[in-house]
Amino acid sequence: xxxxxxxxxxxxxxxxxALAVIIPSLLEVNFPITVSQPTRSTYDYIEALPPxxxxxxxxxxGPSSLAELHPMAKAVIYxxxxxxxxxxxxxxLAEAATLGDNMLKDVAxxxxxxYGQDYAYLGFRPGATQVLLGxxxxxxxxxxxxxxxxxLAEIPLMADITNYEQVDLVLDLASGSSTEWxxxxxxxxxxxxxxxxxxxxxxxxxxxxLQTKQLVGLMPGLLGAAExxxxxxxxxxxxxxxxxxxxxxxxxxxxxxxGNIAFxxxxxxxx
Amino acid sequence: MRRQVPLILCFAxxxxxxxxxxxxxxxxxxxxxxxxxxxxxxxxxxxVLAVATLVQSHWTRIRRRSEYWQYSFLVFIGxxxxxxxxxxxxxxxxxxxxxxRYVQVPMDATMFSLLAFFIASAAYRAFRARTLExxxxxxxxxxxxxxxxxxxxxxxxxIMPFQDNLPSTARQWILDNPNLSARRGIILxxxxxxxxxxxxIILGIERSYLGGVEGD
Lengths: 271, 216
Hints:
Helix content of chain B: over 70%
Number of strands of chain B: 0
Order of helices and strands of chain B: HHHHHHH
Oligomer: heterodimer
Strand order of the largest sheet of chain A: 3-2-1-4-5-6
CATH class of the largest domain in chain A: Alpha Beta
Distance between the termini of chain A: 18 Å
Helix content of chain A: 40-55%
Number of helices of chain A: 11
Order of helices and strands of chain A: HHHEHEHEHHEHEHEHH
Number of strands of chain A: 6
Number of helices of chain B: 7
Strand content of chain A: 5-15%
Number of domains of chain B: 3
Strand content of chain B: under 5%
Low-confidence stretches of chain B: none
Largest sheet of chain B: none
CATH topology of the largest domain in chain A: Rossmann fold
CATH architecture of the largest domain in chain A: 3-Layer(aba) Sandwich
Mean pLDDT of chain B: 90
Shape of chain A: elongated
Radius of gyration of chain A: 22 Å
Mean pLDDT of chain A: 93
């Protein structure tokens, strides 16, 4: 019996995981969300910005991390548009260029934001380090035109924005090392304020920067998205995803505990 | 000459960039910004190199009939489709956006989603409390997992109403304290390693980036 439990067919585990994901998504169960301090700090910082301020959003994630970071991007950008905070989007990843464009257009349509006045999207340029350093001198030295090819000089929003001095906050949405690049090259050198929203697997790496205030706030994975949605009072994909994540986590915790009980019984029998 | 010129360039630019970083003099700042602009121009060449390497490696697989060589044709078909639509039509072309949204996004998301199944299976088989260190790791992982799921707080608050939201509070404590301390140590170690490696490269002691056998 114990031997069988220890060598359980992995296809059974795969079926259990599939059920743990499918059933909650069909039942639409919602659990109460407790907002963590790092997410609250991000929200508070943006909430305190006066209308007309500018946020630069870095869409530094690919389609593989879309499920975690898209809800977060949507919640924060919607919050900015509601507060009349201007949004400049860009990316350091080639594969994220279309993704950022689609996201901004979708949220803008929902919030009634106007391109060129409330937001602009610069797209992608290769050479992450040089892009970050170059924008410290002049954004138009790196992005001479926006994603659609319109010269930055013709975009009203960009008229009074030269470099980081006119950007009140950078929000990096990342599935890789880009947040550390922003901190190294823009916070240290240009004293740029930075907040981050990152995937669950890299969130633990960000805590030293949070403590040193090199990050003003941090949103951890899908949970961060759900927390932000709660703060702006607009439950959406992040909140929906938390019920699925809850069941999946419970299943993994259950499996680990079961595996360890079987392991200890087998070890005792061996002794 | 093939090795001396890159070494001299590396030394000169390394020293100049390090000095200009610490000097507020206008000329120094101008030089720093000028070199960053040059680097911006060099950046796109890396993409050309990446495409050339990809084509070369998959063409070699097809020529040698390596295992699963047929899939290399899919790489060429995928790349050619995106390039043929993307270059003349631009990144906002309807077909280009369609291919991204309905081909690349689902495929990428599917590949990543498969991880959930393998992680669950691996956690069941490998996550054992064999030693004290493994037990500590296991306990921390379980607390963080439960704290990351809102259902953890809900269950706790229902059965233990004297201390609200303990799972998420415990998770936050683990991230704020032991995790932060360990990460800071790792960051310091990496940073010291990067500094020493940079000095070795600038001074020409480390030459492996030139290719070939060291000391040629």
